Amino acid sequence: MIDWLYSAQLWGASIAGLFAIAMGFAKRKPSGLSIGSLALVQLGLVVQLIVSISMVFLGERAKTDTVEFFAYLIVALMIPVAAAFWALIERTRWSTFVLGVGALTVAVMLVRMSQIWTGIY
């Protein structure tokens, strides 16, 4: 796991989550901005998947458990898709909160993935 990529993803997911929650408190329905910010979180996770697979093929391994790291990454990839699907099906202000919670969940999972990869708790 590359440190600068991890930091960029963590900041991006946190900002996207707080932004969507703020829009929810403002009683805004899901829009291109809120779903687009979650799409950027998803894009970062796809980049992380590609980089992680490349690093493993080059011989790098997670300090704790590489399989657990990839399990977290795969589940993290599903969260933005599920949140966006929910927001597109149910277009209420509560869906905007779901987008925010989804992005913040990804941020927490990124922290755990970093702990697994580096072995630092």
What does this structure look like?
The chain is mostly helical and 121 residues long. The chain has one domain. It is 82% helix and 0% strand. It is built from four helices and no strands. The longest helix is centred in the middle third of the chain and has 26 residues. The chain starts with a helix and ends with a helix. The mean pLDDT is 95.
Intertermini distance: 15 Å
| Rounded average pLDDT | 95
Question: Share of helix among residues?
Answer: over 70%
Strand proportion: under 5%
Morphology call: elongated
Structural class: mainly alpha
How many helices?
A: 4
Which stretches are poorly predicted, pLDDT < 50 over at least 5 residues? none
Tally of discrete structural domains: 1
Q: Cα-atom Rg, whole angstroms?
A: 15 Å
Question: Which H/E pattern describes the elements?
Answer: HHHH
Characterize the largest beta sheet: strand count, sense, and whether it forms a barrel: none
Number of strands: 0
Quick recap:
By secondary structure, this protein is mainly alpha-helical. Helices cover 82% and strands 0% of the residues.
What attributes does this structure have?
elongated, 121 residues
Give the topology:
Elements: H1 3-25, H2 32-57, H3 66-89, H4 93-118
